[in-house]
Amino acid sequence: MSERTIEPIRRILFPTDFSPAASAAFEYAERLAAATGAGLLVLHVPQDSATVGPLNNVDGEKKRQLEAVQSQLPDVDIERTFYAGSPGEVICWIAQERRCDQIVMGTHGRTGLINLLMGSVAEYVVRHARCPVLTVPSRPRGEAPLKDPAIDFPPPTIQPL
After folding, report:
1. Which of 27, 71, 99, 160 is most buried, by CB atoms within 10 Å?
2. Rounded to an integer, what distance in angstroms lies between the CA atom of residue 95 and that of residue 61?
3. Residues 37, 39: Cα–Cα separation, whole Å
4. Mind listing the pLDDT tens digit for each residue in 4-42?
């Protein structure tokens, strides 16, 4: 068996819809970025947009919210972007295009018929992203327990199924 190496986390994608679920995930994204020295790419994909592609004329409130995210983390390299399209597809595409090593995103906790009818962006991303995805529930239990992350991936744990 050959050993595979795990690349360090250099860029984290944090997609946000500015919901409470996204706010819960932001704490994890910020701690992970600070702990690993990774850059943070904050992405907003408006769900009500009929266009596809980069957005230059973005609602002023959304811009202010993204700027507020950036001001909270002066020691983390943060890039902000808006992109229109299907949220799940855009998130996966941006993650690949921008060579993100990790996606950290919130989940709304929809189940049953609502999830069946509306779909789940987080579920789509988990199934289609080419990098690891950390999903955080809208009401995580306790604080984000990330202090000094220690990661050990012995060969049996990284073998494909």
Report:
1. 27
2. 25
3. 7
4. 677 889 999 999 988 888 888 988 998 999 899 999 999
SS3 for 105-135, per residue?
EEECCCCHHHHHHHCCHHHHHHHHCCCCEEE
Percent above pLDDT 70 for the chain? 60
DSSP-derived 3-state class of residue 135 = strand
What residue spans define the domains of the chain?
13-138
Task: Give the architecture-level CATH label for domain 13-138.
Answer: 3-Layer(aba) Sandwich (3.40)
CA 77 to chain CA centroid, nearest Å: 15
* Beta-bridge partners for 41: 13, 79
Return the DSSP state at 99.
Answer: T
**Token pair belonging to 131:** 């990098």
Q: Indicate whether this model's pTM tops 0.85.
A: no
Length of the chain: 161
CA terminus-to-terminus distance, the chain: 14
Q: 């973005």: which residue's tokens? A: 58
The DSSP-derived string for 48-95 is T----EE-SS--HHHHHHHHHHHHH-TTS-EEEEEEES-HHHHHHHHH
Q: Which two tokens stand for residue 12?
A: 């984290």
Assess whether pLDDT exceeds 60 at residue 113.
Answer: no
